[in-house]
Design a protein that fits this description.
Length: 283
């Protein structure tokens, strides 16, 4: 039995779709009615990272698990999950982490939380694999409304390059690792796209595909922070700005070959991602 947490989120949903029908699969979310459609052999269960009892139940009979936690302001969640996983005799935990953990210069709240989570898993005695993606290409979905309504992309540090990765590639790697842990146990995988692009480049690609001129408006740090404060609690908003400043200084431009090596095919490009999500940006 494989357990996928975060099954209603960006990566977990894609992993669930790929694994569904391949063998016994359990999807965990706080509200199982929102889980991706369950096929034969797939079940959705209710569970909360803050509720150890629900995790113990969800992990019963599980061989491998994908662990996706998202709240650095609730730091006990990974520990709860690992406690329940150890009790249940889980044999492999695949942890969605972040590439910044490997950069000693990254000390923002979100990266410190992910680093601590990795440390907990390493110390747990459970066999592990870390998936460490760069920023998801899908983060540019936050541009969709202003692109549709105004033909504008607003971004902080528009020329800083980031080797963003397609979430479908993260999911494809996760599926390989979950289905056949073997050589993947004890490895940390840097997951990037095939090129380091800036917001300026991504805006050009979107404009070309939409056959519509788009304008990039550079935000000041204060403007970016107030936008983020509308969506996140203040400590997270500040951590995201801190992380963007590191990106401006070139920390996120490295392109890693791991996606291609694990999957035996090239990583998807931003253009690939944009073509498949273009309708969201269309006026
Ligand atoms: N976005 C990026 O650019 C980026 C880059 C590198 C690393 N990452 C890492 O990727 C992870 C986020 O992945 P994602 O974008 O796929 O997540 P997401 O789309 O934000 O989805 C979060 C998932 O977590 C579930 N969840 C939230 N609170 C929960 C709780 N208390 N108990 C049980 N489930 C809970 C949600 O399910 P319900 O609401 O249905 O319960 C949902 O399925 C984070 O660890 C982040 O640090 C992200």
């Amino acid at each position: 039995m494989i357990l996928v947490t975060g099954a209603t989120g960006t990566v977990g949903r894609l992993v669930a779709e790929r694994l569904s029908g391949t063998g016994p699969l359990r999807l965990l979310t706080r509200d199982p009615r929102r889980a991706p459609l369950a096929g034969p052999g797939t079940e959705a269960v209710g569970g909360d990272f803050d509720d150890l009892g629900s995790l113990r139940e969800a992990l019963t009979g599980v061989r491998s698990a994908l662990l996706v936690t998202t709240n650095p302001l609730a730091p006990g969640q990974d520990e709860n999950f690992l406690t329940a996983a150890r009790t249940a005799g889980v044999r492999h935990v695949v942890k969605l982490s972040a590439q910044a953990v490997a950069d000693p210069g990254a000390v923002d709240l979100i990266t410190r939380w992910q680093r601590d989570n990795e440390e907990l898993l390493r110390a747990s005695g459970l066999p592990w694999t870390f998936l460490r993606p760069r920023a998801f290409m899908s983060n540019t979905l936050s541009w969709a409304r202003s692109v549709r309504d105004e033909g504008v992309v607003r971004a902080l540090h528009g020329t800083s390059r980031n080797s963003t990765v397609d979430p479908r590639d993260i999911a494809d790697v996760a599926v390989r690792v979950l289905a056949d842990p073997g050589a993947h146990v004890g490895r940390g995988y840097a997951l990037t796209g095939p090129a380091a692009l800036s917001a300026v480049h991504q805006t050009e690609i979107l404009g070309e595909l939409l056959e519509r001129p788009l304008k990039l408006v550079e935000l000041s740090q204060d403007q970016a922070l107030s936008g983020l404060l509308a969506r996140y609690p203040e400590p997270l908003a500040r951590a995201l700005v801190e992380s963007a400043v590191r990106g401006r200084d070139g920390a996120k431009a490295h392109v890693d070959p791991t996606v291609g090596e694990v999957l035996g095919r090239p990583a998807r490009t931003y253009r690939d991602w944009a073509v498949d999500h273009l309708s969201v940006f269309r006026a």
